[in-house]
Amino acid sequence: MSSSSTKFSAVTGSARKIKDNAADWHNLMVKWDKLNTDGFQFATNIVNMRNSQKHHQPLEDFPSASASQTFPSAVQQQAAAAAELQEECSKLQAVVDQMVVIVTKMEHLTTIQRGVQDLEEFQFGPEGRTLPLCHSWRTKDFEESSQVLLAAFSQELKLKQVILQKLAHTTASDLHMVYLSCWLHQPFVPAQTRLALEALLLETGHRLL
Amino acid sequence: MSLQGALRKSFAALQNHRAVWRSVLEECDPLMESLGNLGEQMQALSRVRVSDTPLGVFPDLQERLQFQLLQAVDVLLHRLWDRMSRLQAIRDSIGNQVSTVLQLYQDAADALGLAAATERSSVVPSLADMLGWLQDAERFYRRQFLQRKTLLQTLRLDDLAQVEGASKSWKSLESPDSEQQITDNLCRLSFFMESQ
């Protein structure tokens, strides 16, 4: 990301904070997207494993002793499959854990933004400063933007946590597909939300106008 | 330009156009597959009452997901139509080339005579054959374009089974026999193309 050399100077502390904030938002979303892609792979694997378990042969009641020496018995096969499934679930858990960290950082950014806003109200009164810190946004606009982004990602995280808990416990293929769709398409972070970030980056000079 | 020269130029252009057409179609394959995939997802969503599932804690989830899926379809269709304009341009180019050559022939036909037009040697096909092959090729690409355009235009997003089957329908429009025929005809022209 190149910085524009516009009037968004780094002289005032507030301006610097807002600009760094925007860069941090962008980096967090890039990390989030990567985690989303990785998570989708693990979620797909879980679904495939559940599907193949569904079609697995029923357990033999009395496997012969000699057979179990040369071929893995149905019990051993099932145990191996269960272990594989558990492994994918752990990987998905790890992804969600990292997403929790990201949302926490987003909360932090929003708090900082709130702080900048409070300081400005203190210095200039409820109307804020007369000249905007960057192109045209009021400082309040940054705070509102942050709130919107934070709300979207928090809700999306809650959705992913539900998917994580329930994915391996269902065998209904339509529901499986809906879980996967939800993970992939992120219904609480639509394109408009991403545009909010783009607007933030434009305002703070990280993207050239 | 002589009729022979015009024919050589047309066949050379046809070779290029075919290659570009094939590459554009190859770009469409993953797009159509994604489209079918989205159709599958939308079908699954329509069969599930989200409020009866653990996802029911999110009251507006069904609508939101539906919206995302439709948006994704929209993006895909946009890209597909983009490819379609490129195919249209190729169809038009081929069409123009062929009508130019045919016009040249018609202007020269009387002077040429039927015998000359149908005379062939062991290495050079007759003018009549070559003109016929050009027309066959032009007709092929015109049909292909029309069929593919019709498929996309008649896609109904409320007919999810159709969307899901879109990729298969698209693939079924391939006509390898006709393609092979054109290739074979072009092969027969190799001596003609090399000679002056």
Describe the 3D structure.
The complex is a heterodimer of chains A (209) and B (196). By secondary structure, chain A is mostly helical. Helix content of chain A is 73%, strand content 0%. Chain A contains six helices and no strands. Residues 1-6 of chain A have low confidence and may be disordered. By secondary structure, chain B is mainly alpha-helical. Chain B is built from eight helices and no strands. In chain B, helix 1 runs antiparallel to helix 2, helix 2 (61-112) runs antiparallel to helix 4 (127-153) and helix 4 runs antiparallel to helix 7. Chain B starts with a helix and ends with a helix.
Helix content of chain A: over 70%
**Total count of strands of chain B:** 0
The chain-level structural class of chain A is mainly alpha
Q: Cα-atom Rg of chain B, whole angstroms?
A: 24 Å
The secondary-structure class of chain B comes to mainly alpha
Helix content class of chain B: over 70%
Number of continuous helical runs of chain A: 6
Distance between the termini of chain B: 13 Å
What is the subunit organization of this protein?
heterodimer
